[in-house]
Design a protein that fits this description.
Number of strands: 5
Strand content: 5-15%
Structural class: alpha/beta
CATH architecture: 3-Layer(aba) Sandwich
Largest sheet: 5 strands, mixed
CATH topology: Uracil-DNA Glycosylase, subunit E
Shape: globular
Number of helices: 8
Bound molecules: uracil
Order of helices and strands: HEHHEHEHHEEHH
Distance between the termini: 28 Å
Length: about 180
């Protein structure tokens, strides 16, 4: 870890530091096939200290395995906001901008050829999309030296049922065409 990122576990740059249990930095190899970026930790992640270890994470990595052919162990997994917002509310603009430099540090460290952003908040923060995820999902974009895509957040798939899962599967099949190209 570089010097700055070593300070992430004790970050107090925004008010979420007052209510979180743990900073959820991210996990996975530093030379992954895919970097997966969600919105913010939920309750399971706040307790466990790892991103996407709850229900939505299980669905997400099942879909990635089935459609992209990658295991979680081949992915670096993180969030645009590293601390749990109370009651899982959407992070505020201040929280997003306070946390964004940490993600930039992680982009320097984790040289992934592919990036997948999940849901509106991550898609906007990572790719700068102005439109909502309904318009931007499945679009291939260039990002630094690599490429990226946004799809729906798996929590939306858990709420929205099979139709959202089907859209995610279709997006992930597009992502698969970019793996190791
Ligand atoms: N939702 C997210 O966006 N990230 C997590 O780590 C867990 C749930």
């Amino acid at each position: 870890m570089n010097r700055d990122l070593a300070e992430l576990p004790t970050c107090t740059r925004c008010v979420l530091s007052q209510t979180r249990q743990r900073v959820v930095v991210g996990s996975g190899p530093l030379n992954p096939a895919l970097m997966v970026i969600g919105e913010a930790p939920g309750r399971d992640e706040d307790e466990g200290g790892e991103p996407f270890i709850g229900r939505s994470g299980r669905l997400l990595f099942q879909l990635i395995q089935e459609e992209v052919g990658l295991a979680r162990a081949q992915c670096f997994v993180t969030n645009v906001v590293k601390c749990r917002p109370p009651a899982n509310r959407t992070p505020t603009r201040d929280e997003l901008s306070a946390c964004r430099p940490w993600l930039s540090e992680q982009f320097q460290l984790v040289r992934s050829p592919l990036v997948l952003a999940l849901g509106n908040t991550a898609a906007r923060s990572v790719f700068g999309f102005e439109q909502g995820i309904g318009m931007t999902h499945g679009r291939i974009v260039t990002l630094g030296g690599g490429r990226g895509m946004a799809t729906y957040h798996p929590a939306a798939a858990l709420r929205g049922g099979p139709s959202v899962v089907d859209v995610m599967r279709a997006d992930l099949r597009i992502l698969k065409t970019l793996v190791a190209q």
